[in-house]
Write a structure and sequence with these properties.
This protein is mainly alpha-helical. It has helices spanning 2-16, 35-52, 59-73, 78-81, 118-133, 136-158, 161-174, 183-199, 206-218, 224-227, 232-255, and strands at 18-21, 27-30, 86-90, 97-100, 104-108. It has eleven helices and five strands. The chain is globular and about 40 Å long. The chain binds zinc ion. Zinc ion (ZN) binds at residues 127, 131, 181, 186, 189, 225.
């Protein structure tokens, strides 16, 4: 009986895999897990992160992050806007941030040492949200399933809800759910994120300052987003070039009243 359920699930999942095209025109292989499952995995990872903590108790920081995230998600397509967006601030001096499927956004307090104004915070959060909107977690899981983990993932899929979530927790690490993206994904998150921040009324030029601060703060150590990019300076150049082409969108957003005042 169990085998029968499993093989049905295999057929269901394998046929659900599909190629699609991201908003920057990149061919993607996605659909290894359903969007609903993916959102559940994201929500579960977020709960785990918050349980592990420690969370910041600074209500002002929490409101600041929420304000920037709200301004950004207001410019997303309705499908992405519709999920249960949630933010958390972690008391951790490492300058880092993440976004997960299901609309979960986490920020370390250390991010405020490099993201020194709301536009710079928007730059880092829009980059992270860009990973989610362009289905990068989906891509990673689908690729990983093709490589190895298909039976384990399907075991979780065929089980009851509780065991799916439990096994999903282990799955997150296994499927590279929380690992840095590929170089193509990082570039795409840069492009999509910078566009998103401009549409939301944040100055896209500040993305350049943010990543410069990041490089300066990282010292010799490679932060997540640098590890997949061979040349940080060329990335800065690309961000600078795109900023000038995004200025009209930014001005338009500002004149349309999208003038976030988050802090
Ligand atoms: Zn990234």
């Amino acid at each position: 009986m169990k085998h029968w359920i499993l093989s049905v699930a295999i057929v269901a999942v394998v046929t659900a895999c599909a190629t699609t095209t991201s908003s920057t025109g990149r061919k993607q292989y996605v659909g290894g897990v359903s969007e609903q499952q993916l959102n559940q995995l994201g929500a579960q990872a977020f709960v785990e992160a918050k349980t592990k903590g420690p969370l910041s108790t600074d209500a002002k920081q929490g409101a600041y992050v929420r304000c920037v995230v709200n301004a950004l998600i207001a410019q997303l397509p309705s499908q992405s806007r519709g999920v249960a967006w949630e933010t958390a601030v972690f008391a951790n001096t490492e300058p880092n941030a993440f976004a997960l499927p299901g609309g979960k956004v986490g920020v370390n307090t250390g991010i405020f040492t490099v993201a020194r104004n709301q536009d710079q915070l928007a730059a880092v959060l829009a980059h992270e949200i860009g990973h989610v909107v362009e289905r990068h977690h989906d891509e990673r899981i689908t690729r990983q399933m093709g490589a190895s983990g298909i039976l384990q993932i399907l075991g979780a899929a065929a089980g009851d809800y509780g065991s799916a979530v439990t096994q999903g927790g282990g799955l997150l690490a296994q499927a590279g759910f929380l690992l840095p993206g590929s170089r193509a994904q990082e570039t795409e998150a840069d492009v999509v994120g910078q566009r998103l921040m401009a549409d939301a009324g944040f100055n896209p030029e500040q993305a350049v300052n943010l990543w410069q601060n990041m490089i300066a703060a990282s010292g010799g150590r490679q932060p997540e987003w640098l590890s997949t990019h061979p040349d940080p300076q060329s990335r800065i150049q690309e961000l600078r070039g795109r900023a000038s082409t995004l200025m009209p969108s930014y001005q338009q957003a500002r004149s349309a009243g999208r003038t976030p005042k988050c802090g």
